[in-house]
Amino acid sequence: MKSLLLPSADSPIYQWAGFVLFLLLLCVCLGGVFVWLTMARGSKAKRKRKLRHHRPTNPTLAQTGGLPPKRDINQPPPGP
Question: pLDDT above 70 covers what percent of the chain?
Answer without folding.
Answer: 70
